Each structure stands twice: as structure tokens, then as C-alpha cells.
Amino acid sequence: MTVDPDRGVEVVLPRRSPERHAARVVEELGPWIERRLAAQARARETVHGPPGTVPYLGEALTLVAEPGRMRVHRRGGALLVPEEDVGPAVERWYRRTARAEIAPRAHEAAAAVGARVTGVAIRAQRTRWGSCSPSGALSFNWRLLLAPEPVLDYVVVHEVCHLKVADHSRRFWSLVERHCPDWREHARWLRHNGSALTL
Q1: Are residues 115 and 61 in the same domain?
Q2: 0.70 cut: is pTM over it?
Q3: 112 and 128 assigned to the same domain
Q4: What is the count of structural domains for the chain?
Q5: How many CB atoms lie within 10 A of CB 152?
Q6: What mean pLDDT value characterizes the chain?
Q7: Nearest 5 degrees, angle CA 35-CA 10-CA 86?
Q8: CB neighbours of 61 closer than 8 A, spacing ≥ 6?
Q9: Are both 130 and 39 inside the same structural domain?
Q10: Confidence at residue 10, expressed as pLDDT on a 0 to 100 scale
């Protein structure tokens, strides 16, 4: 079962299960669904600023539509956007900007832990904020730019530490804490608000 404030409640049943089982599950889990929707609403309030803005590393950028504009451009606290098809254009801007924001942070964090990054990819994973391959390639979700900057920095440090320690052992978390002492606070923020990191 997935609960999403935009798409509603989705129940996936085994192939031969009758549809009435879905209705029964939704009814039985009604209080949990309500709590989940309320938590997601609170997360959206935490992440998103006033109408007509988008979150960017802890600040709200005001969307300003310009006639004839094809590509999104930032000017100070404003994001200049096309008059039509705004959503996809803004997402493309976030993806481009994510590479410029994240790659230098990853290389700097890797140098601090004594590791080397072989590549940085920007993706749109549904369930992961970042990943690290054995070859030293790192991958990050562009939606991290919708979070406060310290949260992005924590995820970068987390993945870079995997270049030294592949698992989530005590040694790994000790390394994370050495390079990001407030990591628990940022991990908690992501756990509570990550579902709201959407445009």
C-alpha cells in the first residue's frame, strides 16, 4: 500500500485476489492512512514556501513567468520560467543545477575522508537519495535540492563515506559523525519530510 496526498491510496494485491480485499484493507488501515496523510501534509508545510515559489536548499525562489522564455534561469531570489509547461522546465533546471551543486561537494567530501570519486550522476530515483558503487561512482537524487542545504550535505557525506566503508556498520557511522556531527538531525529531517520533496 502506498499513500500519497496527490495520487491517493494505492493497494497492490496478489494476481488472483478479488478487488474487495483492497477495500477491506483500506477500511482496516483507515486510522493509519489518516495519520500518514496528516504527516505528509505537515511535511509539505515544512518544505514548501508560499504559493508561487519553489524550495531550493532552504530558501524559497519566486517563480516569474516571462513571455517567450524557453529555459528556466535563476536571477537572485527569482526563477524566470516559461509561461507554458512550467513544471517540466523547472524540473530540468533542478536536474542541471543539481550537478553543479552536488559534484563539487562530493569531491570535497571525498578528499576530506581520503577517498576518490570516479563520477557523479544525477538521477530521479523514487526511493533513494543517493548511492555509491564499488568503482567510486556516486549517484544523487536531484530532489535533494528541495531540502535545506545541511540535509544535502549530510547525504553527500553519507555516500562519500561508503567509498571507505561499504556497509552501515559502527565504523561507517563513526566516519559519518566525524565529517557530519549533526547527521542524526539531518537524517531525521529527511525521514519525516522526504516524501514532500516534490515540485
Answers
A1: no
A2: yes
A3: yes
A4: 3
A5: 25
A6: 90
A7: 90
A8: 53, 54, 55, 74, 77, 78, 79
A9: no
A10: 78
Sheet with 130-132, strands from edge to edge, namely 119-123, 137-141, 130-132
Residue 46: pLDDT above 90? Answer: no
Same structural domain for residues 103 and 81?
no
**Are 192 and 171 in a shared domain?**
yes
pLDDT at 132: 94
For residue 130, how many other CB atoms are within 10 A of its CB?
Answer: 20
53, burial (CB in 10 Å: exposed 0-12, middle 13-18, buried 19+): middle
Does residue 14 carry a pLDDT above 90? no
Q: Which amino acid is at 144?
A: L
| Percent of the residues in the chain that have a pLDDT greater than 90, as a whole number | 67
- Which domain covers residue 84, as residue numbers? 53-89
Same domain, 38 and 105: no
Hunting for cell 500519497 — which residue is that? 4
